[in-house]
Design a protein that fits this description.
Helix content: over 70%
Number of strands: 0
Number of helices: 3
Largest sheet: none
Structural class: mainly alpha
Radius of gyration: 18 Å
Distance between the termini: 23 Å
């Protein structure tokens, strides 16, 4: 939580609104897709199938992020000068 607050204070003007908008959009789309997949899984294989689908989806996301870890931008080491 503290990490988010620090990054928000470094953003210029309305950039904080846009940043939170993207985060909320990503969370909403992810939750919607997960509900659809788990619904199909429950219908096909029962509750254990839904847990398996959720675990597999989480594993796929973790693997993709792990493979792309070198392409992510590094965290800034100094405060954003234009915000002052």
């Amino acid at each position: 939580m503290i990490d988010v607050v620090v990054h928000v204070t470094l953003l210029v003007g309305g950039a904080a609104t846009e940043a939170f908008g993207w985060v909320v959009t990503a969370a909403t789309l992810g939750l919607s897709a997960a509900q659809v997949l788990s619904g199909f899984s429950v219908d096909l294989a029962g509750p254990p199938g839904a847990f398996l689908t959720g675990g597999l989806a989480g594993g796929v996301v973790a693997a993709v992020l792990w493979r792309r870890r070198d392409t992510l931008a590094p965290a800034p080491t100094e405060p954003y000068a234009a915000a002052c």
